[in-house]
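Dear colleagues,

For the upcoming journal club I promised to circulate an example of a predicted protein-ligand complex. I picked one with zinc ion because it came up in last month's discussion. The inputs are reproduced below in full, followed by the predicted structure.
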Amino acid sequence: MRFLGQSGFHLSKGGTSVLIDPFDSKSGEVDGEVIYCTHCHPDHVGGIPSFMERNPDAILMTNEQVAGKFKQFSDRTVIARDEESYKHGDWEFQFIAAKHGILRDLNIGVIVRNGDETFGHVGDTITFEGFISAMVDTIAVPITGILTTSPSQAITELKKFQPHPQTVVVMHWAFRNPKSFCRRLSVELPNVKCIVPKKGELIPL
Ligand SMILES: [Zn+2]
C-alpha cells in the first residue's frame, strides 16, 4: 500500500489495485480497477477525473453526494451505502457511515479486504464508531480536529476497539504533529504500531 499524501492510499495485490481518496489529479495518475472516495470534499476527490480517464474500465465507488458531483462517470459508478458491502474481483469493500465534523457532509468510510489483508479508512470523521468491532488489521485515522478527530479524540476512539488494530497509519494531519500523536498513542496502546507515512512511501499491510 502506498501513501499518496493527505488521505490518499493506493492498494495493490495480485496485479490489481484500488485507489482511496486521492486529493489531487497527480495522485489519480495510477493504475487501478476501483477508486473509492469517502466524501465530497476537494482533498478527497481531486484525483477522480485523472484516474477514471487513465483507467477506462475502472469503477467509481462512492456515496451518492460524491456521485452527484461526478455524473460524467455515472455509467461506471457504484453507490456506497452504510452497512452494505461490494465485491470486485478479489477485493471486498464494507461501507461504514462515519460522522463528518462541523460540515456534516455525508462521509462513508470503508474496510477493504483482499485475502488476509484488511485495511480500514474512516475518511473525515469525529467518530470511529462503526469500525470498533470490525476486526481491522490496519486502520488509517485523521487527526486534524474539528472536521475530523483531533489527536486526543483519535486516541480515545482507538482505545475503544476490540480487538485493537495491529497498525495505525496517521493521515490528514494538516498543522498537527503526527509524530507526537504516535508517541502518545504508543503510551496508551503499547502493542499498536503507529506509522507516520511519508508521501509516496510503501507501507506493508
Ligand atoms: Zn479532508
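Two points we might discuss: The chain has one domain: 2-195. The radius of gyration is 16 Å.

See you all on Thursday,
B. R.
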